[in-house]
Structure formats: structure tokens, C-alpha cells
Amino acid sequence: MTTVRLPLFPLNSVLFPGLVLPLNVFEERYRAMMRELLKTPEDEPRRFAVVAIRDGHEVAPSAPGMPDPTALPERGPAAGFGPGPMKAFHKVGCVADAATVRERADGTFEVLATGTTRVRLLSVDASGPFLTAELEPVPEEPGDEAGALAEGVLRAFRQYQKRLAGARERSLATGAELPDEPGVVSYLVAAAMVLDTPTKQRLLQAPDTASRLRDELKLLRAETAIIRSLPSLPAPDLTRGPTNLN
């Protein structure tokens, strides 16, 4: 299978194909990455890979810390990820296409990217100003009964939204058209549910669309039942994703 080498952007969250990723880029290693992406002609995709962090920190320490208050902060492209950055990341990620890369006057960047395709992490190179990775595509197979499962997931997702809106004592926005293509449904629901990173990662790397939808159906039913029994529930807005610091 053909491999590709791309800049690597580790995050404390999971990016799914088709989902929008806003970024506020301020660390030098990622600013260097954006400057490199800006060298790509405008008629070509400005691509980088996003992987979820398994063990490490999205933002490297920038001041002396504990237990040694005099210790200098770690610097470099792999700062915060230990001596073997390959071990710090989940092995399946997503390619992001940066539609907007805007440099501010202070040298930081405002980036708006969209997830495109899944990739598997084969190796990580920390020899340059930012991390790069060798990646192989992970094809999306439909699996068995994906269409019927998507219909069930959409019904369960609507109930989940209603329960979550009720638990937060907010009205649920109506009229939004949800997709019916099974693969799109599976990624949209995975991104919109209030789940921890390991669970979202499990959904991202599901072997096929039908398997992801089956998992989501179980999660939606379980989460809806939990929300039903709680008087209130703090949760991020389902229609908005938080801006990552990097």
C-alpha cells in the first residue's frame, strides 16, 4: 500500500473525516509547520495529519515546574511526548486539509481545517523543526447492514440530543438536516457525542462503518439512559467544537 509523509499535529482530541477543525497555533513547532504549509501552492491541498495523544501533553511546558522549580522546560518538536513519540500517540489518525491558514501580526496562526481520510501511523520523525510521520491510508469499508444501522443510529441520536438538551435545561435546535449516508452518519455521531478520547478513538479506528454504527447504537442507548436519570449534565454544545489551543 502506498504511504505518504506529512506534518504531524498531535491533539488531545480525535478528528473524524468530514469534521471541521479550528486551531489557534502559537507554539513555535506548530508555527513552523504552518509556515511550511503556506509554501504549498494555493491550488494544491495543504495537508497535515492529526493524531490523538495517548500519553503526553498537547502544549509543552513553558516554565519551570515541579518537583524541580529550576528545571528548564523541554523544547523541540517532540516536547511533551517523551523519548519515543511514536508510543505517545494513537496509531490511527486523520488527514486534515487546511482551507484557511492565516498568520496574525504576532506570528501566531488561525487555522481552519477539515478531516478527510483515516491514516495509520507507521513512524514518527523528530529531526526537523516539527514532527512528521510516515502514514498509510486506512480504507473505509461499509460492512454488513450499514444502511439499516445508520437509520437506527439517527433515531437514537435524536433521542440523545433531546435528553441532553433537557438535562442542560436548554431548547434543542430543530430543522437541521442530518445526513443519511452511513459513513457520514457514523463520523458525525462519533464527533457529536459527549465521550472521552479513548472511546472516540475506538470509533475512529473501527474496522468498518457497520461496526462503528453498532458501537454507537450501544453507546447512544446507554448514554441516553444515564442522562434520563440525572437532574443536570454539563456538556459541550453538540453543534460546536472547541478551539484547540494549538
From TrEMBL:
Superkingdom of this protein's organism: Bacteria
All residue ranges annotated as the Lon N-terminal domain in the record: 6-224
Q: Which InterPro entries has this protein been placed in?
A: Lon_prtase_N, Lon_prtase_N_sf, PUA-like_sf
The record's annotation in PANTHER family points to:
ATP-DEPENDENT PROTEASE LA (LON) DOMAIN PROTEIN
Q: Tell me the protein's name.
A: LON peptidase substrate-binding domain-containing protein
